[in-house]
Structure to design on (408 residues):
């Protein structure tokens, strides 16, 4: 295949972790959907994994309950105004750190760092874990999408590695283990199609927030669920796949698969397609990222083949769901364009959830914001500040666009 800018396709190479068992784990975003499911996975094998750090933005009650159950050494709270309350409710042996720096600091203290933070805020956690040479179990796709040029550099730190905790990328990671990177023809990312699959633009003009949040196959947080309804989630995942595996955009395709059982596929140059199948259950990708290159001893999402009757595949409706192609456009533009795409989308989704923007307005805001993107000096020397600036500028522009839109 044509070599990508990052060189040959990055097939995962099994290695060994230092330090032996138990593997220490830090969970940033421990009170969210990925965080609570990670603790569920760890609970199945308490002798194999030791949770040494937990962090959340502001859910003090759940964070306290988790700390009392898992006895970490340190607990981080993103909202520093809650640090005193948190400290007063924890045993004195547990250290409390606060603020964005506090959350980033716990991303350096374990063998495996789970980044389950929602949105762009996860960037500092991703960078801290990689700079410290840790394994990053990455559920926060926004950080590798928006921060691509910086993350790519920091990933070269000795010991640093990213194991994706996104069902599609976990699937691709597994499928790539069956061949050589040079023999990869293309990646096929599957998409459920979301709650609005089969509907046309005129039917989607007035959909309610609750309808967008009713995902047919996956139970996830509100932001990613809205992203699934627009297909922006798949678009972001195309960029994520490009960044993670170094595959060019022309060799990444999206296939709608409503059952969400085939989690993604890799096609090799001889025509063979290798797929990973399981019932939709995020605990499988979480366990994979913890146990890699081995396998978690507990099955999650195992298929009952006597009950499984049909697997359907169809092409995505790119006209009704323009966010998919907007993501390809941003990805191909490269440099900081994906940061703009991500920021505009976060602003638009927030406005939609708050009732300030109609559902079709999400794509309109993203498109109008991306229209204003001007290519900068070049991707080679990007700094974290460049990414933060791009994010802030794009957010400001997206907010301006939101204000020009009718709610419906
Ligand atoms: Mg996914």
């Amino acid at each position: 295949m044509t070599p990508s800018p990052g060189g040959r396709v990055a097939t995962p190479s099994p290695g060994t972790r230092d330090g032996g068992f138990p593997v220490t784990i830090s969970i940033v975003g421990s009170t969210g959907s990925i965080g609570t499911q990670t603790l569920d996975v760890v609970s199945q094998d308490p002798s194999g994994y030791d949770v040494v750090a937990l962090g959340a933005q502001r859910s003090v009650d759940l964070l306290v309950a988790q700390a009392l159950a898992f006895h970490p050494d340190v607990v981080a709270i993103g909202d520093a105004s809650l640090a005193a309350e948190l400290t007063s409710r924890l045993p004195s042996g547990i250290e409390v750190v606060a603020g964005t720096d506090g959350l980033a600091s716990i991303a350096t203290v374990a063998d495996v760092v789970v980044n389950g933070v929602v949105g762009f805020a996860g960037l500092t956690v991703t960078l801290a874990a990689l700079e410290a040479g840790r394994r990053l179990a990455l559920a926060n796709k926004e950080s590798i999408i928006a921060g691509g040029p910086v993350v790519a550099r920091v990933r070269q730190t000795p010991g640093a590695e990213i194991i994706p905790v996104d069902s599609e990328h976990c699937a691709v990671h597994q499928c790539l283990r069956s061949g050589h990177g040079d023999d990869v023809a293309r990646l096929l990312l599957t998409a459920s199609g979301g709650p609005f699959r089969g509907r046309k633009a005129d039917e989607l003009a007035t959909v309610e927030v609750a309808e967008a949040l009713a995902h047919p196959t996956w139970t996830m947080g509100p932001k990613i669920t809205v992203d699934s309804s627009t297909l922006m989630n798949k678009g972001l995942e195309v960029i994520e796949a490009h960044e993670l595996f170094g595959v060019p955009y022309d060799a990444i395709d999206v296939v709608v698969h409503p059952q969400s059982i085939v989690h993604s596929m890799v096609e090799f140059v001889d025509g063979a397609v290798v797929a990973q199948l399981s019932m939709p259950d995020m605990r499988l990708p979480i366990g994979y990222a913890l146990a890699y290159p081995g396998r978690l001893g507990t099955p999650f999402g195992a298929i009952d083949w006597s009950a499984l009757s049909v697997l359907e595949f169809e092409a995505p409706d790119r006209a009704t769901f323009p966010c998919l192609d907007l993501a390809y456009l941003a990805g191909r533009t490269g440099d900081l364009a994906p940061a703009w795409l991500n920021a505009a989308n976060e602003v638009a989704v927030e406005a939609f959830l708050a009732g300030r923007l109609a559902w079709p307005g999400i794509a309109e805001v993203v498109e109008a914001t991306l229209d204003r993107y001007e290519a900068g000096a070049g991707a080679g020397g990007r700094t974290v500040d460049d990414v933060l600036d791009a994010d802030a500028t794009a957010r400001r522009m997206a907010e301006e666009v939101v204000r020009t839109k009718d709610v419906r």
